[in-house]
Every structure is written in structure tokens, then in C-alpha cells.
Amino acid sequence: MARRVLVVNPNTSPEVTEAYLAAARAVAPDDVVLTGVTGRFGARIVTIEAENIIAGHSALDLVAEHVGGHDAVILAISFDTGLAALRSVLGVPVVGISEAALQVASAGGRRPGVVFFGEISRTLYASVLERNGIVPAGMVAIEIGGASDYLSPEAKDAAVLDASLRLAAEGAEAVVIFGAAIVGMAARIEARSSVPIFDGVEAVAACLGAMASHRPRPAVRPLSESVGLSPSLTRLLNGDLR
């Protein structure tokens, strides 16, 4: 029987969804069916906290509408936006792409360094690291000229490799590249690196492991009603999603 995974991108760039799906399908077993959905409102590429809050609403809305018939969810946004909220209301496993990459990179006590795109997002990525209990060996920002630049990741391979080599020289024992659109970059450049490199494609293996060990637990339900939400999100919060 096929295992069905919903890939949720609360950015509003379908190119990001397709890029993640392509990389994830390349490593997923044949019996895993990956279906992607893209945000309908909010930023094309989230870079600041205000956009990230909006993306959290988008993630909940997308999952509420599309999760039916799926066995797990992969959250394909590099800030793992809405991860805790989704886990609190869903009965299936939810995996964040950055959480998954950090867990693998830090396995065995390794101290990873991280590479991310856009200095403007440093505080958001620092929050991701803090939530995962990671004190990085270093954080290197690769500047981008906007959404279109970010959506052309191959052009950044050399810069990311250079950043990874610098992090290794500073003591990093592994490197994590943050970003949903750049998934697959680690595989392209790792052979030229002196330390292992990981990215969000690690979420596929993490998701399969979570499905195998998942034990449903009671969802957290609100004490009062909400107004103005989509019908599917209202049903999800109330525990009667069909």
C-alpha cells in the first residue's frame, strides 16, 4: 500500500514547491507518493518575521484543506513555520525540513555550521537553531538579489561551497544549508567539501521514520470558538476534520 505524504510550502512560490518535490522524489522509496501544495496568500519567499507569522496561518490553512488521505506532512519552508502548531492539532506525523537536517547533521555530537540565504533572515534562522538546541559553529549568509535569485540555486553552488569550507576551517564538523528551493544542493557540492553537508531533503527519511514509529496522541483543542477562518481550518481546530 502506498504511503502518502503531503508536502506543504506556505510560501506563495510554486517554483519552491516543485523544486522540493523533485529532490524529495529522487530519494523517496517507490511506494511513497509525495503531493505538494503552495500557499495562496503571503510572501513569495518569506524573509522577515511578519511574513513568517502570515506563513504560519497559511501552513495551517493548507494542511486543513489537503491533509485528508495523507499519512504524514513535510513542512517545506526553511523556518519550519507552524511546525509546533501543526503537531498539536494533527493526528499524523509532521516533519520540518530544517529540523530534520539539523538532527542528522548534529548526530553523534557533531557541531554543525549553517549556511543560509539573506542576512535579513538571520534572526529567524537563529530561532530555528535555538528551538532545536543547536549552538552552531558559525552562521554564514549568502546574499540574494530577491526571489528570482533565490529560485536559481545552482548559481549559488560555488558561494555555498566556499562558505562550507570556511565553516569547516572554523571548527564545524558538518554543514547544514537552510532553504526549501535549494534542496539537492548538498548532494551536488558535498564531494568537494571537507565535512558532510546536509539540506532539507533529509526530511524524507525523517518522515518515513516518524510514520513507522508514530503513536497518535490527543490533539490540543481550543477553549473558545474562532471566527473568520476557512471552513476546513475551523474543522481542524475543532477536531472534526473529515
From TrEMBL:
Pfam family, one: Asp_Glu_race
GO molecular function, one term: amino-acid racemase activity
UniProt signal peptide: none
Superkingdom of origin organism: Bacteria
Record-stated family: Belongs to the HyuE racemase family.
Name listed for the protein in its UniProt record: Allantoin racemase
Species in which this protein is naturally found: Roseivivax lentus
